[in-house]
Structure prediction request, 516 residues.
Amino acid sequence: MNARLFIFLLAVSFVSCQKEKKQKEVVQENQKPNIILILADDMGWSDLGSYGSEINTPVLDSLAYHGLRFTQFYNTSKCFPSRAALLTGLYAQQVGAGRTWKNPWTNSTTIAASLKEAGYMTWMSGKHHGVDIPTDKGFDKYYGLLSGAANQFNPGKQRPGEPEPAQKRIRPFYVDGKRHEPYTPDSTYYSTDAFTTATLEWIHASATETKPFFLYLSYTAPHDPLMAWPEDIAKYRGKYKVGYEAIRKQRFAKQKELGLIPEDFKLSSPTHVFWDSLSEAKKDEEDLKMAIYAAMIDRMDYNIGRVLNTLRSQEKLQNTIVLFLSDNGSSAEVVEIPGDGNIGTVGQWTSLGSDWANVSNTPFRMYKNNSYEGGINTPAIVSWPQIDQKGKINDTFYGHFIDIFPTLLEAAGHSYPKNKKVLPLEGQSFANLVTQTSESSEEETGNRLLFFEWADGAAVRQGHWKMIREKTDQWELYNLTEDAGETNDLAEKMPEKVAEMDGSFKAWKKRVKNSE
Prediction:
């Protein structure tokens, strides 16, 4: 072949490749986006590197630094109401999940059902925490834990050569459309890995599919029992012997450096014990517990990377929306179950406890099950295809899990069903906040009312005002613009505002009760 012919063929090949690439880009632009909704379990506001942590979370941090982070995005402070609100776009009280997970959801449809109508393949892997089977609620495929918390290494019966798995109780699992109770996997099983592997099987099987997909990836990490692979624990062992206060101060300082909180943010008083009051043996145990907790988050981040890398190899990542949230704040609950004493392994159920949970929820007050910011404020990361927010932080909009449904509907170009059996959506779309390039303002939210009620606590958010009560009829009032740490109760000084917001809460309570 002469040189001129070779160069000509090379040029034709290059033009052809460029044309094919351009055609593929045009097709992608015209396609509905793939959507991945990722939910962590009992993870605190400061547990990601991009929210102040020392834990290694490069995948989620990359999404945050190239996407959008919210500083005021709310869950319900409890696992199952959060999951109900997330999937239905309604308050949990409206669908029968305000007090218990044991009721079938009523008055509602789900994100999955609506996106399925819009032509999406719909998949769910992980924890559901309800009695409704996800495949009856719009999901084409489901693998995972139907309810509650389970052993991370073995949710079933004892395997040969291993200790008896520490369990609260036997939980139902769904594998390949079949219910298993108990589900006893082989010794390679670890919940975070397994939930991801199921997801990858669906993604690989649909590699040539032109339909978009919706994936709800609902991890049980870092919910107790604290269990992780030894090599992951080893990365963090010893890092936490500096104690609670030192880690909390480090995270607080990093949050200021990242621009997540203002320089004059007033940190609430610590609720953890004084580190030096602990014995050396207790310090070592506390270091181990936090190392395992960190390892669980580290492993979750790694597995999210597995999913994104697979989509990248299929050239689908550029057309995929990714959202990451936590179902409530870090947990102070301590579950006491007899075990073999080896913390972090299959035979021992261990909880994080209130001291490290206080650190985990930096800079906020209290924990899961409380309506203070430490219980309801979630790290919220949104990565939107072809929109590079360059790590923008939105600190004026306050959103809620009920907003996810309408936002994803807008992204998919689909409408909510007009059905008398289904209540109108309570949430509002925030898609415009993700795609806009201008600076955000308070007009994004205005005086929108949001309501919270779980167990003995309740709260109302309106503009920069937040009213809250816990185990009492007396409301506290905070100006979150000036005092997001909830340290200065203004209720006595502003009784008219309290009365106004109390009236709004009572009206909401009556309205959602009538939905039940």
User: Anything to note?
Assistant: The longest helix spans residues 280-313. DSSP finds 14 helices and 16 strands in the chain.
